[in-house]
Each structure stands twice: as structure tokens, then as C-alpha cells.
Write a structure and sequence with these properties.
- GO terms for molecular function: ATP binding; ATP hydrolysis activity.
- The structure is a single chain.
- The protein has 373 residues and is of the alpha/beta class.
- The protein has a domain at 93-115 and 156-221.
- It is built from 16 helices and 8 strands.
- Strands 3-4-2-5-1-6-7-8 form an 8-stranded mixed beta sheet, with helices on both faces.
């Protein structure tokens, strides 16, 4: 399943989402590296603040612009504030852009307004796609349910940047401070939490100046966000939900799958990371019995008991996965066996990529759960 997806020239975007601590960043990097080494020109974008991706790719750090990592693979990390600044600079004159960026109200909105990070991730994804320099864009999303907040970002930012709101603020701003104060009393409470660091009359002055300078740019926000949202829903995009064989992670995975379905997003499948397949067809009960009968061979007894514990763990993982597949029978599942130690270099990422692509039937006394290639 994985190699078919990576090799398909029609697939231009792969989005990895899932809860925290399930190996999403590693999966994204491994997919990107494997696609690049199979002949595609790839960029991987992370909006997870962890630095492990840069380290594994052999880079000192990731920036807001793609950097060459290995062969035809580039990598970058979203800088929310810088992306917002660049967007302002690209859609305004230098003088107006400088005025906007220096405005304290803008500085607060661009760094702390709810949904700004997700909106800027959408903006950066749209920019990368529009540049046309890569055959494939792999997106590593933030942990937990906020990983899907970018699906709401266009609507949330559109409400904030809606034409009616602009008219509400810009008209009294042009009329003077008194009119603005009247508007603030009626409708500006929505923004007071987001701008809590700016108080009193200075807030009103900054807001007025922000709207006056930013007014001409608002129209393009909704259009670009809508374009990127439709891009995510297109046949050229594939979503992979990443989970670990743990109850909480699989519950989050079920939430992601349901949410993607309700949004009409193209789901490619579930990647179940850090599984523990059984290496020999010997049940836990028989292994423990053999361990008891091993006599003076402590090594043989220890190995048999370790095998029995491994079988119990594999059975538990199979039961957990069975609950997920029972509720979502049409979702393909790819198991990725756990790798010893941390993934800290390209060889480690290659190993993960190979395990993503090569799927063997599960060997567990709990029974078989469907695994698609």
C-alpha cells in the first residue's frame, strides 16, 4: 500500500496525523526519504516543534524555507510568525507591509490568535504546492486532536477576517477614536483575550491602525484558504492516520478517521507504529510450560519466558486493533514493528521506510486482523 501511494504520480500531498508520541514525525520523514529514493522530488513540512526531524535528516536545524536534506529530499519546519510576515510582504507594498508588521495588534494576532498556526500551515502548504518544485509534499501535523484543527482554520480565520468585520472596524477607525470605542463596546470583546497584552486606549489605537493598514489584504485570505482546503480534499492528497497499539492512541485514531470521513478527506489508511509481532509459532502457554521443564538451562528458560511475554503483548495489540478495525472495517492497516533505539540518522529512517512498505501477516494466537499491502 505504501509504495503504491508513494509511487503514484497523481498523489502530490501526503498528510500524517495522529496523537502525540506515536512516531508521526519519524513516519513523515521516513515516507519522504523513501519517496525521494524511489525517484520523486519531495519536501517534508513539519509543524511539530520537535527537532528530531532535522537531526534524523542530518541537518543542524530546520527553517521556514526548504533545505536540502538528502538527494532529492528537502525538509522544513513551519515558522508561524515568519510565514505570516512573508504573506503580508507578498501581498502589500513595502511601506504598508512594514507598517502592518510593526503594529502591536498584528504582532499579537500573528503569534497567539487561536487558529493562526493552523492557518499558516495551510498557507505554507498552499505556497509549496503553488511553487511546483516538488512531486510530493509530506506534511507532519501537530500532536493530538489539534492535528486536525487546520481543517477548521480557513473557516475560523475567514470569520475573523470576514468582510463584515472589516467594515465594522474600519468604518469607525476612519471616523475617529470615538466611533471605534462605540464599536468596541458592542462587538470587540471577541478579541480581548487574544490581545490581553495590550490594554486600554492603546489597544483601540493599535486595532484602528491595524485595520486601516490591513484592509486591502483581507479579501485574499479566504480565497487562498478555500483553495488549499479544496486541495486537501482532492484525489491528489492522501491522509495517513498514525497510531501506536495503545488504547488512547487508537481512540484518537478512530476520532481522526471519523473526522476525515465527515470532511470528505481522502484517507489512505492507518499506520500502526511500534508493534511487537511474534517471531515464532509457539503459544505463550506452551512457552511457559517449556520454560518450567527446561531444567538447569537458565538461558533456555529465560528465552522461553521472554517469548511468552512477547506473545501476550502481541495478543493484546491484536485485540486493540481488532476493536478499531471492527468499527472501521474499510480502513487499510499497515503495521510497523518497533525499532530498537532512537531514529537518529538516514539509515534509521530507511529502516522505518522498509518496515512501512513490507507487510507480513501478523503471527499471534489472538487471530488475524486484516493488513493491506
Amino acid at each position: 500500500m505504501i509504495d503504491e501511494m508513494l509511487d503514484d504520480p497523481a498523489i502530490r500531498i501526503v498528510v500524517c496525523c495522529g496523537s502525540g508520541g506515536v512516531g508521526k514525525t519519524t513516519t513523515s520523514a521516513a515516507l519522504a526519504l523513501r519517496a525521494a529514493e524511489r525517484g520523486r522530488r519531495v519536501v517534508v513540512l513539519t509543524i511539530d516543534p520537535a527537532r528530531r526531524l532535522a537531526q534524523a535528516l542530518g541537518l543542524d536545524e530546520l527553517s521556514n524555507e526548504p533545505a536540502s536534506a538528502a538527494g532529492s529530499l528537502d525538509a522544513m519546519m513551519l515558522d508561524m510568525r515568519r510565514t505570516f510576515d512573508e504573506m503580508v510582504q507578498a501581498h502589500s507594498t513595502p511601506e504598508r507591509a512594514a507598517k502592518i508588521i510593526a503594529n502591536p495588534f498584528y504582532q499579537t494576532v500573528s503569534s497567539s490568535f487561536s487558529g493562526t498556526q493552523e492557518y499558516m500551515a495551510m498557507e505554507k502548504l498552499g505556497q509549496l504546492h503553488a511553487r511546483g518544485e516538488w512531486d510530493l509534499i509530506v506534511v507532519d501535523t501537530p500532536p493530538s486532536r489539534s492535528a486536525l484543527d487546520f481543517l477548521d482554520a480557513p473557516q475560523r480565520m475567514s470569520r475573523f477576517l470576514d468582510g463584515r468585520m472589516i467594515r465594522l472596524l474600519s468604518a469607525p477607525a476612519r471616523a475617529g477614536g470615538k466611533g471605534l470605542r462605540k464599536v468596541v463596546g458592542a462587538g470587540f470583546g471577541l478579541f480581548t483575550k487574544a490581545v490581553s497584552t495590550i490594554v486600554g486606549g492603546q489597544l483601540l489605537t493599535d486595532a484602528s491602525a491595524f485595520v486601516a493598514a490591513f484592509d486591502t489584504m483581507f479579501g485574499g485570505f479566504r480565497e487562498r484558504a478555500t483553495t488549499t482546503y479544496e486541495l486537501l480534499r482532492s484525489d491528489g492528497t492522501a491522509f495517513l492516520v498514525v497510531a501506536a497499539p495503545e488504547p488512547d492512541a487508537l481512540r484518537e485514531a478512530a476520532y481522526f478517521v471519523d473526522r476525515l470521513g465527515s470532511e470528505g478527506m481522502p484517507l489512505a489508511g492507518l499506520v500502526l507504529n511500534r508493534t511487537h509481532p511474534v517471531l515464532a509459532p509457539l503459544s505463550a502457554a506452551r512457552a511457559r510450560t517449556a520454560a518450567e521443564n527446561a531444567g538447569s538451562s537458565r538461558l533456555a528458560s529465560a528465552v522461553l519466558r521472554l517469548h511468552a511475554d512477547r506473545v501476550d503483548l502481541a495478543d493484546r495489540e491484536e485485540r486493540l486493533l481488532a476493536r478499531f478495525t471492527g468499527a472501521h472495517p474499510s480502513v487499510p492497516v499497515v503495521r510497523v514493528p518497533a525499532v530498537a533505539g532512537d531514529i537518529a540518522d538516514l539509515d534509521g529512517l530507511r529502516t522505518v521506510g522498509e518496515r512501512l512498505a513490507v507487510q507480513d501477516p501478523p503471527a499471534s494466537s489472538a487471530g488475524s486482523v486484516r493488513s493491506l499491502r
